[in-house]
Every structure is written in structure tokens, then in C-alpha cells.
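WARN retry 2 of 3 for item q-0093 after timeout on previous attempt; input resubmitted unchanged.
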Amino acid sequence: MARAHRAGTRDGWLAAAAGAVAALLGAGLGELSAALIAPSSSPFAAIGGALIDAAPPWAKDTAIAWFGTADKIALLTGIAVVLLAVAAIAGLLERRRPPMGVVIGVALGVIGAAVALTRADAGPLSWLPSLIAGGTMAVTLRMLVRMLPAQPIDRSDAATRDAPLDHSPQMDRRRFLAWTGGAAAIGLVAVLGATLVSGGSRAVAAIRSALRLPAPAVAASPIPAGAELNIAGLADVITPNASFYRIDTALVVPQVDPADWSLRIHGMVENEVTLTWDELVALPLEEGYATMSCVSNEVGGTLIGNARWLGYPLRELLARARPTADADMVLSRSIDGFTASTPLEALTDPDRWSILAVGMNGEPLPLEHGFPVRMVVPGLYGYVSATKWVVDLEVTRFDRATAYWTDRGWSERGPVKLQSRIDVPRPGQGLSAGDTVIAGVAWQPHVGVSRVEVQVDDGPWEEATLATAISDDTWVQWSLPWRATAGRHVLRCRATNALGETQTSEVAGVVPDGATGWHEFPVDVF
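OK item q-0093 returned
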């Protein structure tokens, strides 16, 4: 009886392994087929995108707080873990109650196909990769489980003591392990192949690399000599593209050929406008600097960056369309279905440099930052202004239309709040007693920063030295000399904007319209 129990337990593990391997092979072939057909039809991307869309705001905030810009990797990893767990259960069920495991595999494929077809960027074959994944999993699981030995017989029972043993090749465990290993290897190769195809050899990536943007008709002003304090550990005045934060809802970066791109401006307008890529880059483009930040940026957070952008003023395009007098909002739409609601006045204000951007830090927009075209609106959080891969602008009203994040509890207007951050020293960094420096950045784009103050423990507020800001649309560095004494000290900072308003000490979370409070943390001096 004990031997039969051990054999049953062992076969249970093998059945679970068969389910996991079948899922791996199915997922690999599904992802590879998606990479060859259309990246947006990836089963993982379709299911992950649906989870992002269905997630409540607190779940999104928690993911960003825990994982930052790696939130998408964390989500995909979580999906993979859950899939493997479900697949293991399917293997056990297929062993004990066939064909339940096969049914689960087919059901996963059908669900993935249905979800893929509901995505805004769904194509005529979006359903196919998920069905390939589910069908492959079902067939492979059935085949592997059938190779397992027959259920062990309890020889202690007189009724079964003399039952014949089955030594047929179909029941050969070694053959099962060989086939399982082969299926796992093929699955891993398929996953690797999908990664290679989707990561470096797409036509759009090659087009971007070969693209040369026109020189701006209005060039950016030179960066002031005193804008960069050159303090180790302090954020650069200009954030490199590779380091610029990325927060969006696209698990698979949309691949948009500029030759196929166009922008439609419609809705509450007197003249509907359609703009192609060639028409856009033929316009007198302007270049300038602007700081962008995510509404999910916690006090002291790093979901913020400053870049040199190249684009065309949105107010000029809207002037062509001639919005009606009662319009007050522009609903921008990405090619993957994401929407943002921007106050019309922010896009038509002649004193705000709101642009349809095509370049970032001297090169075409990176694929993950909206290539070929995105919006940049200084002074507004990205969730209401910075639509990437933008293809549609609908002029409307806030009482008639809502956007992706406003549907999920965020405020409909998102002005960036006055903030400051300490970069040097870092939280948790030990310091040696003596002369050192406290330094950081402060920002409120479209308003500007006039002063930053620092407090050590409960001492007096001391005014820091501000670097020269590039403009009111960008963040500014600051520093303060500090003679550090041994012990634990608490550092905090606050900023005052160009209007004379001082950063509030009231602590608030990121929902519904951005975090507030002073950045503060302890440091140990030895």
C-alpha cells in the first residue's frame, strides 16, 4: 500500500509537470506566432492588457509603488506563475479525470482569443496566437499524460493481487521524461525566438533608426551655464532617453510605421483635420525643454524626467480645426486604445508650449516613448496629457466624455503639483562627519520654482542655492552645504514657486490627482 501511495504521489508530480510543460510549449508557440503576425496579438499581452484595464486604481498604484517602471515585467511574471499553476492543476485533472485537463487548455485559448479581439488595436488575426497556444497546450498535455504508467494497483488487496502488470511502451516513464524534456526545450526556444523577433528585428525599429528628422524652425535655447551643478548622485538636468521613466498601459510597445500614421482632429470643430506624417514634419517644428512627471510619482519619487523635445504646437493644429465655443476638452487616443482628457485651454494657450512631439533629445522618439508621435503638455500630469502613439484628437466636453484613468477614479484635470526632492545624500546612505552637501531637484512645470529650503532635524529652514533653470517648464537643481555631525539626522526640503506659493506639508497619496508633502528621511552620520 505504501509503495502504491508513493507511486501515486510520484505520478501526480509527473502529471503536474506535464501540464506545466504543455503550457510552456503552448505559450512559446503562441508568442512566436504573435511576433510573426502582430505583436499586439500576443496572448500574454492581451491577457495582461485586460488585467491592467480591469485593475482598480489601488492595484495600479501598488504595482507602481512596489515595482516602479518594472511594473509590466512584474505583471507578466505574475501571469506566467498563475498560468503554470493552472497548467499543473490541468495536468493532475487530465491524469485523474480526463479530459478535464484538455478542456482547461482549450478554454484558456478561447478566453485569450476573445480578449485579444476586444482590444482596441485588434487585427483580423488577433485571435489566432491564443488559439494556437491553447490548442498546443491541450494536445501536448493529452499526449504526455497518456505516456504515464497506468494508475498503481494496490497489491495488498486480494482482488487485485494477481492482476497482470502492464509493461507496454506507452507506459514507459523514461519515454515520458524524454518527450517532456523535448517539449520544454521547444517551448523555451520558441519563447526566445519570439523575444528576438519582437525585440530587435521589426521593420519599424529599422525605419526609426534610419529616420532623420528635419531641423527645427525654432531651435531650443542653449542650456544656461549654471543649470548643471555637477554633484555626484544628483539627477542630470537632461534625462537620457534610456533613463527616462516609462509608465503606460501598453504591455507590447505599439509598432507604428510613420508612413501609415495619421492624426484625425474632429468632434466639436468647424473643420475636421487629418494630418499625415509627411505633412507634420513639413511644418515649422519647434524645439524646447520640458519636464514630465507621472501622477503616480510619490513624494521623493523618480517617475519624472526632463528632455529636449521637437514638435509642432497643438494650438496651431487646433486653430485649423476651429473648436466650437462650448468645447472645453480634447480626448486624445492612442493607437492601442488608451485615452486622455486634456483641458482645451491648456492646448490652445499661447503661453503654454503644448506640442505634438516627434523628437526627444535630438533623435526620433524612442519606440517605448511614443514613436512616431506623442503629446507633450508642460504642467499637466501624463495621464491627462502625454498620450503616446497618438492618432486621434476629439474636441469635446468634460461632461460628455471621459478618459481611461478618469473612468478609474482619477481627477479629470491633472495640474502638476509643486514638489522638491533630495537626491544627495540618498535615503539609507551612511555619511562621515564633516563638510558635505545636500542637493536635489524641484519642479512645477509651467509655473517655475523660485526658492528651495532645507531643514535638518527641527532646526531652522535654510535657503538652498538654486541652479539656473532652463525655463519655467523644467525642473531645477539646488544644493546646500552642510556640516554633518555624528548621529542620526532627519533631512527635509520644501519649494516655493514663482507665484510665491510654498509647497504644502500636508501628506496626501497619489490618488486622485497627485501626492503632496515634504520629502524627508533619516541619515546616519558616523
